[in-house]
Amino acid sequence: MNTLTLEVTSLADGLAAFRHGWNSGKAEDGARIGFATPELLWKVLTAKRWELLRTMTGQGPLALREVARRVERDVKAVHADVHALVDAGIVRRTTDGKFEFPYDAVHVDFMLKAA
Question: How far apart are CA 14 and CA 78, in angstroms?
Answer without folding.
Answer: 30
